[in-house]
Amino acid sequence: MGAVLKLSPLSVETHMQDQPMEGRTKLLNVGQAAAYLGVSAASLRKWSNQGLVPVYRTPGGQRRFSTDDLDEFMRSMRQPSADKQYAAGGASR
């Protein structure tokens, strides 16, 4: 299972205060993050449980997702793997 970073609301706020206004990332709940990606909340929960998407936890155990992490996840999903290139005929036998 992927690493889970537990942050209190105060530590999230303090961390974000250290960044310039334009560089701050937004934290989304599961429903907001799923809508941001265009997937179901169940899929997003599954991916975070598998460690594919970084997740932050509130003191109450709720998930929060960074828009920066979600953007990086989407970029990583768009890059073809070597197996897919081989199956598509990208490599000669």
CATH class placement: Mainly Alpha
Please, how many domains? 1
CATH architectural group: Orthogonal Bundle
Binned strand content: 5-15%
What's the average pLDDT?
76
CATH fold assignment:
Multidrug-efflux Transporter Regulator, Chain: A, Domain 2
- What's the end-to-end separation, in Å? 36 Å
Note the total helix count: 5
- Residue stretches low in confidence (pLDDT < 50, at least 5 long) are 5-21
* SSE run: EHEHHEEHH
* Biggest sheet overview: 4 strands, mixed
How would you briefly describe this protein structure?
This protein is α+β, with helices and mostly antiparallel strands. The chain is 47% helix and 13% strand.
Describe the structure.
- With 93 residues, the chain is an alpha+beta fold.
- The chain has one domain (4-16, 25-78): Multidrug-efflux Transporter Regulator, Chain: A, Domain 2 (Orthogonal Bundle).
- It contains five helices and four strands.
- A four-stranded mixed sheet has the order 1-3-4-2.
- Strand 3 and strand 4 (63-66) form a beta hairpin.
- Helix 2 (30-37) crosses helix 3 (41-49).
Write the layout of secondary structure elements.
Blueprint: E1 4-6, H1 9-17, E2 27-28, H2 30-37, H3 41-49, E3 55-57, E4 63-66, H4 67-78, H5 82-87
Parallel strand pairs: 1-3
Antiparallel strand pairs: 2-4, 3-4
Helix pairs in contact: 2-3
